[in-house]
């Protein structure tokens, strides 16, 4: 059983520190997504696991074996890159068989293995097609087939769906998830697309400026983001300033609301998050907050309704029913849907939480 352990990993390029003390353990047979904005260090983590670069500090283990200094060709890891890097002069079969031929694997075994991955990736009927005659999604599948034919323990996927249109992207997401289950190996997928991360992952790792800020199941991260940065990155949210009044009571813009969080000193400034789908419209004066409907947008599965409260603050909610612009209504939300977060701007507090999170890993 392969487990990848990153222990106190740092990475610098020319004295420029890119990764700061990364600690994380990847378990076997799980789909991981590394999520974060451009330049936060996602690809650098993949390159370290793939053995394309070696860490400036810290240790990488595969199981009990220390992998620092072990080259990419000595690891049971394969990578699917954003641009697929297929051989344009070879057909589908030849592209997939290439690595096995180089290793001088017996022709009959190559044939068996290629046929098996063609089936796995739904490419059997395209076996002898030239790469130039394939769609983007089919090329993507060839790249994956070529990566898995060597039976790696770990598959690294660096933004592999970014070149596909939206519909194809969603289809490929289903296929990738299915493939990971069938192969039973570790998939580590890099993206800056939060919807993709939520749909695909068993675990999401959120990165910011070379640090892991939060890691957990999609539901954990969506429901309980550690701070404003994570909440903003994952899903849509109303994030407002508040102050803890006492356990299970928070002040938002001068009004006190019940919440389910405790253990934070009264008077502590906090960020408060309420997801748009957790806010409901009721009759004027009958809810927690009187507002005027400012604008509405039809988003297909729901209406996105923007309201302004009596103090001029904006609240966005999602509803299957539309509301009339200019109408005066009231908003309701439950105490368990008020999520309290420590403000990200408070550096000391933030670093303390970051350290305790990293220690837990
Ligand atoms: N070989 C290198 N030499 C110097 N700096 C590098 C090198 N490779 C990456 N960097 C820098 O390291 C930082 C992290 O890069 P990385 O590619 O890991 O980010 P990323 O999160 O994958 O970004 P993207 O989503 O844009 O691919 C960036 O600031 C990048 O400029």
From TrEMBL:
The entry's keywords: ATP-binding, Nucleotide-binding, Transport
Tree of life domain: Bacteria
Matches recorded under Pfam families: ABC_tran, TOBE_2
SMART domains xrefs: AAA (SM00382)
GO cellular component, one term: ATP-binding cassette (ABC) transporter complex
Domain ABC transporter: 4-234
Entry's Gene Ontology molecular function annotations: ABC-type transporter activity; ATP binding; ATP hydrolysis activity
The protein's name: Spermidine/putrescine import ATP-binding protein PotA
Gene of this entry: potA
């Amino acid at each position: 059983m392969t487990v990848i352990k990153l222990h106190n990993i740092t990475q610098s390029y020319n004295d420029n520190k890119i990764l700061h003390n990364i600690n994380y353990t990847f378990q076997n047979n799980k789909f991981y997504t590394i999520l974060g904005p451009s330049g936060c260090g996602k690809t650098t983590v993949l390159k370290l696991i793939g053995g394309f670069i070696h860490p400036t500090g810290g240790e990488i283990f595969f199981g009990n074996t220390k992998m620092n200094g072990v080259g990419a060709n000595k690891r049971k890891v394969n990578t699917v890159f954003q641009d697929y890097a297929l051989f344009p002069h070879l057909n589908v079969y030849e592209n997939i068989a290439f690595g096995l031929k180089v290793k001088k694997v017996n022709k009959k075994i190559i044939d068996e293995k290629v046929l098996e991955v063609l089936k796995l990736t739904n490419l059997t009927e395209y076996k002898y097609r030239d790469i130039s005659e394939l769609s983007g999604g089919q090329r993507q599948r060839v790249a994956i087939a070529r990566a898995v034919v060597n039976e790696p323990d770990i598959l690294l996927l660096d933004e592999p769906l970014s070149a596909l249109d939206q519909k194809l992207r969603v289809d490929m997401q289903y296929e990738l998830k299915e493939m990971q289950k069938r192969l039973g190996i570790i998939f580590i997928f890099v993206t800056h697309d939060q919807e993709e991360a939520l749909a695909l992952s068993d675990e999401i790792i959120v990165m910011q400026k070379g640090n892991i800020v939060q890691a957990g199941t999609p539901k954990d991260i969506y429901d309980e983001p550690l701070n404003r940065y994570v909440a903003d990155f994952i899903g849509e949210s109303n994030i407002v300033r508040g102050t803890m009044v006492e356990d299970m009571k928070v002040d938002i813009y001068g009004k006190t609301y019940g919440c389910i969080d405790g253990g934070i000193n009264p008077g502590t400034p906090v960020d408060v998050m309420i997801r748009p789908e957790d806010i409901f419209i009721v009759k004027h004066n009958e809810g927690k907050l009187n507002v005027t409907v400012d604008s509405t947008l039809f988003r297909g599965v729901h209406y996105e309704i923007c309201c302004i409260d009596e103090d001029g603050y904006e609240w966005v909610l999602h509803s299957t029913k539309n509301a009339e612009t200019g109408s005066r209504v009231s908003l309701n939300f439950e105490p368990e849907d008020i999520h309290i977060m420590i403000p990200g701007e408070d550096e000391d507090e933030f670093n303390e939480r970051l350290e305790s999170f990293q220690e837990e890993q």
